[in-house]
Amino acid sequence: MRRTALLASGALLAALLPLTAAGASAADDPAPVPVDRFEGEVPFAHQPAESIFTWGGDADDPPVLRLAARADVPEGERVLAGGYDISGYGGFTHDFAADRPAHDWSAHRGIRFWWEGHGTGRKTAFEIKDGGAHGEASELWTTSFTDDFTGWKRIELPFTDFTYRTDYQPVGGIDHVLGLTRMWGYAVTLPAGSRGDFAMDQVELYGRADPSLRASVTTDAAVHPVKEGGTATVRVTVATTGSAPLDEPVTVAYDTAGGTATAGTDYTPVSGTLTFPAGTASGATRTLTVRTLKDRSAETAETIPLKLTVDGAKAPAETPQVVVDAHGLPYLDSRLPVRERVADLLSRMSLREKAGQMTQAERAALTDPGDIATHALGSLLSGGGSTPTPNTPEAWARMIDSFQLRTRATRLQIPLIYGVDAVHGHNNLAGATITPHNIGIGATRDPQLAEKLGSVTASEVRATGIPWDFAPCLCVTRDERWGRSYESFGEDPALVESLETVVQGLQGRADGRGLSRDDKVLATAKHFLGDGGTAYGSSTTGTYTIDQGVTTVTRRQLEAIHLAPYVTAVGRGIGSVMPSYSSLDLVGDGRGPVKMHARADMVTGVLKQRLGFDGFVISDWNAVDQLPGDYAAQVRASVGAGVDMMMVPYTYKEFSATLADEARAGRIDEKRIDDAVSRILTQKFRLGLFEHPYADTTGAKDIGSAAHRAVARQAAAESQVLLKNTGGLLPLRKDQKVYVAGSNADDLGNQTGGWTLTWQGASGTHTTGTTILQAMRKAGGNVTYSKDASAPTAGYDAGVVVVGETPYAEGVGDVGNGHDLRLSAADQAAVDKVCAAMKCAVLIVSGRPQLLGDRLGRIDALVASWLPGTEGDGVADVLYGRRPFTGQLPVTWPRSEAQLPINVGDASYDPQFPFGWGLTTLTKIPAGGEARLRALAAAAAAAERAGADRTGRALVARARLIVQQRVRDRMTQAVAQPFAAADHLLLTGRYGAAAAHLLRAYRAAG
After folding, report:
1. Which residues form the Calx-beta domain (predicted)?
2. CB of 435 within 8 A of CB of 453?
3. What is the DSSP code (8-state) at residue 16?
4. Which of 133-137, 268-272, 293-297 has the highest mean pLDDT?
5. Coil, strand or helix: which one is 126?
6. Pairing state of beta strands 250-256 and 271-276?
7. Tens digit of pLDDT for each residue in 289-311?
8. Per-residue pLDDT reduced to its tens digit, 935-950
9. Edge-to-edge strands of the sheet including 163-164?
10. Which of 505, 393, 515, 389 has the alpha carbon at shortest distance from 454?
11. 907 CB-near residues (< 8 Å, 6+ apart)
12. Strand, helix or coil at 802?
């Protein structure tokens, strides 16, 4: 039955429905109007059809729905039932058809439905969609109900209980008034964090409309901080449905009462009434003031609630508070050393406040913004894709400032530290400069450029009010089947260490004295320890195959490969470290695999004690839940291991309460808590958050600027690795007629990859940038484009086929989890057709090597383009010879998947292209052959002895060019082994040995 028919028959159906005590209506109420009966009248589909559909934060989060026939149904024969196991967020929506009229719910009091309870005590959010063009472009209003019962219960949700969503609005909000005259459906957000089942039946509108819905009263803010002796001004506004003038008067009685401030001593009490007469325009504002009084004593912050009693309109959702700022206390004195300020503040904190500082929540998961003060939260984050609406720098700053404002209502006014995954630029922000992913930066071999990129990212992130970045990833990728491999600079720890200059780009000086600048952020080294070494097939997380698996190594291997980058990071003053989801199985220690979040020997023993790390350790997303035992045991294990702040996106209340309970019971040493809180507070003081908690948007004008994009463009160009160039096809000439094809030639989303606007990324155009095709045209190339190579191929001088991967992130991208290392059938067909018709260059846009098999012989030029970011111009720069190709492989390029894992230094090493390989253009190759190589080796050894690093590197680079010129397309195991070893030796400063290995490779090439 269509929705129109169902609504038309509402009165008839209502007459047939059984009435219970809970569901009986007053005699003068209109008859209930059914919205959903779940008898099959509404399909499981998507917009624009009227439909019920599921959604979630990742592939595992959407619930599984079914229409179930049950004997105990409240109405009809079937109910909507389902199961869920949500780690991020997930739920389902019923959208009315986008091509049909919206529904008018304004005659009714609210919406109700039957729900089967399980007594879990967990909250379920219920959302309605008001106004706008259709259900996915409407204004969202939300409330919730608690599963504190068992069996069927009718849940009634009055429309007066719904509040405007401040965390997400698909169209940025419309009028911030719940009009109810153009309704597009509803959505249910199910609880995250544990597996569950639900059943729902008979959604309907009930009761007579509440008159207060015609108008609502709001205040300009929930918290009004003021310095002692100052006067707070509170603005009170009335708004009406449809912005019509008031048809009846609205009065607002106000009174200062309660709170921690003392009337007459700390402030002058006020009371009175504000009146908005009938006919007052919607949006009219009145003001009232509260004057505070000054004394000579130092004090913590004190609150003055402003009680509002509203007649004739809906009252504000919460009582506004005037707050007299804390003052005169040592921790507020910026002239004191940070150590003294931390000690003073810590001495004043309660256990509850300390637990709050160790708790980080996802901003979209706050059940109430007031929870920031109620639970004394120390941190919030935006997970991948968790953005304000609209997604602009201004909206980010306003959002974060609104959260920061809530901390002013706490006794000690400790500011939040807000974190975000800006892993290749400010990648959650639309219009930001998106740089190549780390795998491409590894290909540049350019530490100075890495530092510049860090500076660009820090500048754009801090300008939106965010002081903390969950980057860089210092993983050493050892198996390219890993879905995170593009987050790594490469497979050699020496390469990773060389590019940790990015830490200074993000943070500034190693001593932390630059962190308070408006263009620097706290950096995070992740994921400690061994995340890049997990064995294929060892993961136990969902359908993942390698991510979050087990790294089995000897202690020597652990130190040399996976720990080495953290030694460097600590030396560079890294401010925070994030442990890995993975487990470490250290050969010989007798413990077997142990999750890193529980390895006190590594987190505390190695990182903090041996390496001297003085920052704080932040957990990964919900990682505490992966530890064995009940929740209290999980908290004890992670905190005891040395994790200082827990990223518990949806369970922040449970974590902070459990932590405090365990400490009171003596099962967690409060000294361990004091150490954790001291580390967190130290970084907050260094960041200058106590003096400047709100966003400094001075640098917002530079977000996505030409100067920033120029740095990203340089990085895109330097990251291009020319693997093959038969006949000198590249660079192209602008007078050549070029045929361009392939799935990734004109797709900005594929070019930027995962962690771009959303966690997993997406194909298509979703931010500002230039595709490779667009860049080739901008460069002046004579280009014809046919994505699938279906256009005629005759008459062209050369072809450029841009192929590769579509976006993914983390274990979702693991090979074997719906992914492999082969080109898609469409990409293979495009390569085959173009390369059969003309000389062709194939560009592979991907996060890892792709297997080409026997196609390599039919390709004239091959380029590893990695994931170059938004600046496709950088790719065109090397294609058309504006810049030379200079990139080198940061990972080994295998011949087949059977070779994996394959890495530099392996005893059996026979790749398609070795680590460090990268042809060049526009560069004269030194002449002289073997004799010249011997001379270069001698000179390199002398430079090494003299400590002349720049000279040593230049000499080895010349030798590499000679070898590559000789090898060309004749790569053998005898060549690959010494060639790759030479690049490793170069990275470790052994220039003489590097040149000697290149001489061996030259001789092997025959």
Report:
1. 204-309
2. yes
3. H
4. 268-272
5. strand
6. antiparallel
7. 999 999 889 999 999 999 999 99
8. 999 999 999 999 999 9
9. 51-56, 90-95, 183-189, 123-130, 139-146, 163-164
10. 505
11. none
12. strand
| The token pair that represents 111 in the structure block | 């919406």
Share of the chain above pLDDT 90, in %: 88
- Which candidate, 850, 847, 880, places its Cα nearest to that of 862? 850
Is residue 498 within 8 Å of residue 442, measured between CB atoms?
Answer: no
Measured distance CA(757)–CA(390) in Å, rounded: 13
How far apart are the C-alpha atoms of 242 and 420, rounded to whole Å?
Answer: 37
Q: What are phi and psi of 998, to 5 degrees?
A: -65, -35
Identify any residues that bridge with 123 across adjacent strands, giving them in sequence order: 146
Asked if residue 529 lies in contact with residue 577, where contact means CB atoms within 8 angstroms, the answer is: no
According to DSSP H, which parts of 260-376 are helical? 338-348, 351-357, 371-374
Concatenated DSSP letters of 681-715? HHHHHHTTTTT--S--GGGGGGTT-HHHHHHHHHH
Query: 608: exposed, middle or buried (C-beta count within 10 Å: 0-12, 13-18, 19+)?
Result: buried
Residue given tokens 């639900």 in the structure block: 198
| Predicted model pTM | 0.87
The DSSP line for 901-959 is S--TT-SS---SB-TT--B-SS-PPPP-HHHHHHHHHHHHHHHHHHT-HHHHHHHHHHH
Alpha-carbon gap, residue 70 to 78, rounded angstroms: 6
CA distance 582 to 528: 9
Answer yes or no: 654 catalytic: no
Q: In the sheet that 576-579 helps form, which strands lie side by side, from edge to edge? A: 524-528, 576-579, 616-617
**Is the Cα dihedral 277, 280, 283, 287 positive or negative?**
negative
Q: Write down how long the chain is.
A: 1006
CB-CB contact of 911 with 896 (8 Å): no
Quote the crossing angle between the two packed helices 670-686 and 338-348, to the nearest 10°: 130
CB 27 within 8 A of CB 34: no
The 3-class SS string of 453-486 reads HHHHHHHHHHCCCCCEECCCECCCCCCCCCCCHH
Q: What span, in angstroms and rounded, lies between the C-alpha atoms of 858 and 835?
A: 6
Q: What per-residue confidence (pLDDT) applies to 179?
A: 85
Residue type, 236: V
Q: Angle of helix 991-1004 relative to helix 929-946, nearest 10 degrees?
A: 170
pLDDT of residue 164: 85
- The mean pLDDT value for 666-672 works out to 98
Q: Which of 228, 620, 746, 747 is catalytic?
A: 620
Report pLDDT for 26.
53
8 Å CB contact between 976 and 482: no
Band of pLDDT at residue 178, cut at 50, 70 and 90:
confident
Q: Note the pLDDT tens digit of each residue in 88-126.
A: 789 999 999 988 999 999 889 999 999 999 999 889 999
Of the chain, the end-to-end C-alpha distance in Å amounts to: 78
Q: What gap in Å lies between CA 739 and CA 745, rounded to an integer?
A: 11
Structure tokens at 419: 């974190």
Query: Is 871 designated active site?
Result: no
250 bridge partner residues: 276
Q: Determine which of 21-25, 77-81, 389-393, 988-992 has the lowest per-residue pLDDT on average.
A: 21-25
Interval 200-228: pLDDT, tens: 999 999 998 876 677 889 999 999 999 99
Peptide bond into 731 cis (omega under 30): yes
Catalytic residue selected from 810, 827, 860, 873: 810
Q: pLDDT digits over 15-72, tens only?
A: 333 333 333 445 578 899 999 999 999 999 988 899 999 998 777 889 999 999 999 9
Task: Tokens 């939260």: give the residue.
Answer: 377
Q: Which DSSP symbol is given to 622?
A: T
Q: How many CB atoms lie within 10 A of CB 455?
A: 19
pLDDT band at 406 (very low <50, low <70, confident <90, very high): very high
CB 754 within 8 A of CB 853: no
Q: What mean pLDDT comes out for the span 547-561?
A: 98
